[in-house]
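lol ok so funny story. i was supposed to be doing the assay writeup but got distracted and ended up predicting the structure for this chain instead. priorities right. anyway since i did it might as well share w the group, maybe its usefull for someone
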Amino acid sequence: MKISLGYIAGVLAGGLCYFMPARAQQQPASITVNLKQETGDMSPVWAWFGHDEPNYTYMKDGRKLLTELAALSPGPVHLRVHNLLTTGDGEAALKWGSTNAYTEDANGKPVYDWHLVDSIFDTYIKRGIKPYAQIGFMPQALSTHPEPYRHHWKPGDDYNDIYTGWAYPPKDYNKWEELIYQWVKHEVARYGQKEVESWYWEIWNEPNISYWKGTMQEFFKMYDYAAHGLKRALPTAKIGGPEIAGGSSKSGMKFLRAFIEHCIADTNYATGKIGTPLEVLSFHAKGQPTLIDGRVRMNMAPQLRDIMEGFKIVASYPQTKNLPIVIGESDPEGCAACGMATNPQNAYRNGTMYSSYTAASFAREYQLADSLGVNFMGAVSWSFEFENQPWFYGFRDLATNGVDKPVLNVFRMFGMMKGKRVKVIADEMHPLQTVIDSGLSGKGTDIGALAAKDKKEATVMIWNYHDDDIQNAGKTVNVTLNDIPATAASITQYRIDDKHSNSYEVWKKMGSPQKPTEQQIKQLEQAGQLQTIGKPVKLQVKAGRLNTAINLPRQGVALLVVRW
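and the output, tada:
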């Protein structure tokens, strides 16, 4: 394929955006919401976020984004980050971070330093955010393979370059246990027992791949000693794992089952007794976008299969079937720091395709949890922000240089949905099993909805999603709400599309500046906020039924807030 200079410029500016001419008038899509048919709680499973680089947390744009995340959720937001125990000077870099929490003096005596960990957790606690506290990675002084330790990975480099000395087992498990004991003891002293009891702690990251350079049994030993140290410091603390990669992969399923069975029935390496504390179970789920003739094509089927298989494994053991589950990373693909210049299949990230994918995939996660009867507590979007990076570089992030991207507005929409989820009938929403089995590629658009009801209010999130990154004028969607106990109601429509809640499109119209002026930045910040279409509209409700219609562009997301 011949690649033009215009195509390359488009990639670097966040192009890869194809337009399809509007087709002839089509039959409208239909969505019916039955408010009396409850399907489950509108639990904030989406209010979980994470990233590799913990030192971004307390930087200017990191603090700004955390303030926005805390504001969008009716309940606590949870944050999961890597490298909370990694050795280093606190310099932030892609896929790297450090706190220098543990070093040793010349005689091999432990030296604990919590000031950088405090900077991270203080930033959370000040905003009411809860750490989903990751115990990892291995301090250099404890690593069985301490050199090389600090990596300097950048986009385009071999991903395997990141797996250095921090990924190895401890050379002294007693010192490892004492480190965790001292850490948790410090947190209780700093924030109080009640606060730390409200956190969840988890061990490591993706031990079934190169994030763990030991054996499976060595991981279990490392977990046992860490859990013992945590429980010595705070017996009521909650801990779990194993944060495996790919819940549907052979290695992932094998590891998850072995981990559960170890915690249930094996001899604990630290105590010599049967069983190990286990209060939360976690695994990861990723989609798989590709590039087809220069155009991004998404695929959420692998992500949903990972979730389904992980749910099934947890539900298959009587001892774990009711435990809370956190999908520790739940994303359209695997590498947040791989920008679209080096990985053009990731060009979905700046625009509305990321938004509509997020809406359509989270709705299916609720469906999966309902169908399997599991205790689904959270799904971590491994998306945060990257300091001092090019504008709209195509990282998987929620904001760029302090400006919110369209995807963040989906989470603002989720934050407005409260109460009970209710039944939705959507004639152009593809069945859950179809999407799990073969994805949506080749199946046309997916126009669906997620709905909830609260006191005197209903919320309906509607998306017009397609696996292929092609935009068009969209389609009319007829929406019916049944069982409204009033004779009139007002509707406010919030919207994410090419003209609303979209800083990216505004940035492109500015000429894609890498050094925007102060005035341009203010304009971009405003464009990054969630916007409405017009003012609230009051409509009649006849026999409990309200009818309305919207035109929703492809890859657009709408939230209807109905009050009576």
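The chain has two domains: 5-37+419-563, 43-415. The two ends are 57 Å apart (CA to CA).
back to the writeup now i swear
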